[in-house]
Every structure is written in structure tokens, then in C-alpha cells.
Task: inverse folding
């Protein structure tokens, strides 16, 4: 797979167009007007979408999230009340493929301003082992301007939805979300544009930190509980090996466990990473058998009291520090 270092201008333009196709035509008045308080009532599916809505919307939005802190997003089931309340939203921001129950409810909500973040970037398929493609190192990613039909095909079953763990792809999504908010609430379009630019700048700085911090390491391989970090691995020239696949609850086969033990020896792996919202039992068993250390690599599906940071940027910086330590950054 190609390693994409920067957001091509064409890709951002394409993502914006695709994001706006997810919005049904609005009336000439702002969607926020019906609240009476001038705020856009936004419902976000889970934390990465909530963070985007809050950062871009600022004081002009009221954001609610369907996935409360501490709840594993993949396992979320909506209550009848949540499903009913969803239809009262002015704007829904979600990521198709993460939460089937949410996908179904949104499809039945009747809300006009609905944005699927998966349509704002390019999704790929990642398995238990994924990383950079040495044969394509440094190449430009061709064909960034995808048609709506192509994006629909890429977002089929099996595509990796964990796009927010790559700061560059997350910034690309932010651009599309900002444009969508401008259209939904034109009275505050200038503020949304300003906030989007500020967020993209912060994500660009985060990307620079990751590039510099992971450029020179003793090892390029890290082992995780499940395949959440495929985009991150590809972006920074690393190789992710996961105990499970995309589903954090699936159990590895004995053959996979043996394979990981062999990989750990061959690639000088020091650490097995687990996460805060899923069981750490398998990770700790593997680490014990292979005489490896354990540490947290947070997939940022929710912020809790156990999170090593108060928001997306802080937790990602903690992830960078954990990777640098595990990989022997020089």
C-alpha cells in the first residue's frame, strides 16, 4: 500500500464534494434556526466524530454523542429514546462501518443534514498484519479524485474504518465536515471555516511530531490487541501486527499466537499493546509467554478517566510517546 505523506489539494476538493453529496438540500434558512437559540444541534456517533463537531462548531453548536464514555463503540446498542431523539437532530456526523446499530438508526432518522465521515476520505482494507509498502515508499498516491461510486465500493464490508488514527486522513475528514457545517448553517459559515482551518493546522503539527518522532527507530514492528492502527502504521512507515483483526473481540488462533511470538523475536519487538476499552487478557498472556512488556496504545474510541490525555491531541501525543519507547526511537 502507498504511504501518503501530505493531503493533495485535489483530494481535499474531492472529499469536500463527496461530503456535500451526503447532505440533502436544505432550505435557504439556517438549519439551526428551528432551535430558537441559533445553535446547530449536532449528534455525533462516537468520540472521534464528537471531537470534530466540537472543534469545528465551537460556540455555535450543541453536540451530543450516542456513545457515552467507557462504552466500546463497536458494541453500542441504541435505546428507543436515543433512536427517537436522533430524528430531532439538525446535523448528524458518523462513521459508517464502526457501529451497525447507529448506521441503521441514522438511515431511518429522516434527518436531512447527515454526513458519513467515511465518504470524506479513501478507505482501505487492513488485516492482522499491515504496514508500509517498501516498493511504493515516497510515491504520490495516484487517483486521489474518486467518484462517489468508487468511494461507495471502497466502503464495503472489510474496509478499515479507523481513519482518525492517521492525523493526515483525519484532517482531510475535518475539511469535509467543515464544508458540510457551512452549508447546514450558513449564518455561521465564517466561524466554521476559521475553526476548521485551526483544527487542520493542529493536526498538521501532530503529523509533523509523529513523522519526526518515528523516523529513526530500532524496530518498525509493533503488536496490538486489534487492527486499529493500520493507517497510522502506513503513514509513518511502521508494521502493525495485531492479535485479533478489525474486531477487537475476536480471539486469535493458536497458529496466530505462535506466529506473533516468532515475529516478536525476528523483529526485536519489546512490547505488546493493549487498549482501555477492550479486554487486555490476551495481550498480557501473549506478552507473558514471549517475555515482553505491555503498554497502552489508545485507539481513541472514547475518552475516560483512564485515558492518557483529555482530548484527541493529548492522547495521540501519549500514543506517540508509547510507540517511541517500544520501538526504541533514537
Result:
Amino acid at each position: 500500500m502507498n504511504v501518503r505523506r501530505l493531503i493533495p489539494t485535489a483530494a481535499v476538493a474531492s472529499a469536500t464534494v463527496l461530503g456535500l453529496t451526503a447532505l440533502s438540500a436544505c432550505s435557504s434558512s439556517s438549519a439551526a434556526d428551528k432551535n430558537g437559540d441559533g445553535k446547530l444541534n449536532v449528534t455525533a456517533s462516537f468520540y472521534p466524530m464528537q471531537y470534530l463537531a466540537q472543534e469545528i462548531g465551537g460556540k455555535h453548536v450543541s453536540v451530543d454523542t450516542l456513545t457515552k464514555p467507557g462504552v466500546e463503540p463497536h458494541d453500542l446498542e441504541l435505546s428507543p429514546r436515543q433512536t427517537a431523539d436522533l430524528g430531532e437532530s439538525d446535523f448528524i456526523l458518523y462513521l459508517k462501518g464502526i457501529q451497525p446499530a447507529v448506521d441503521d438508526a441514522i438511515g431511518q432518522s429522516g434527518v436531512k443534514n447527515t454526513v458519513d465521515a467515511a465518504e470524506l476520505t479513501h478507505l482501505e482494507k487492513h488485516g492482522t498484519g499491515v504496514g508500509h509498502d517498501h516498493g511504493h515508499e515516497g510515491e504520490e498516491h495516484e487517483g486521489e479524485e474518486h467518484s462517489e461510486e468508487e468511494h461507495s465500493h471502497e466502503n464495503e464490508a472489510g474496509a478499515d474504518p479507523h481513519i482518525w488514527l492517521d492525523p493526515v486522513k483525519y484532517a482531510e475528514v475535518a475539511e469535509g465536515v467543515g464544508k458540510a457545517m457551512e452549508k447546514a448553517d450558513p449564518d455561521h459559515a465564517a466561524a466554521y471555516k476559521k475553526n476548521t482551518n485551526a483544527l487542520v493546522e493542529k493536526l498538521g503539527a501532530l503529523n509533523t511530531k509523529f513523522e519526526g518522532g518515528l523516523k529513526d527507530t530500532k524496530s518498525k514492528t509493533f503488536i496490538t490487541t486489534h487492527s486499529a492502527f493500520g493507517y497510522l502504521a502506513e503513514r509513518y512507515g511502521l508494521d502493525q501486527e495485531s492479535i485479533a483483526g478489525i474486531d477487537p473481540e475476536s480471539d486469535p488462533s493458536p497458529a496466530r499466537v505462535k506466529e506473533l511470538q516468532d515475529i516478536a523475536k525476528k523483529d526485536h519487538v519489546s512490547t505488546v499493546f493493549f487498549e482501555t476499552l477492550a479486554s487486555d487478557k490476551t495481550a498480557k498472556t501473549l506478552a507473558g509467554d514471549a517475555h515482553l512488556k505491555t503498554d497502552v496504545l489508545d485507539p481513541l474510541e472514547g475518552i475516560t478517566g483512564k485515558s492518557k490525555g483529555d482530548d484527541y491531541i493529548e492522547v495521540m501525543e501519549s500514543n506517540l510517546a508509547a510507540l517511541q519507547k517500544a520501538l526504541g526511537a533514537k
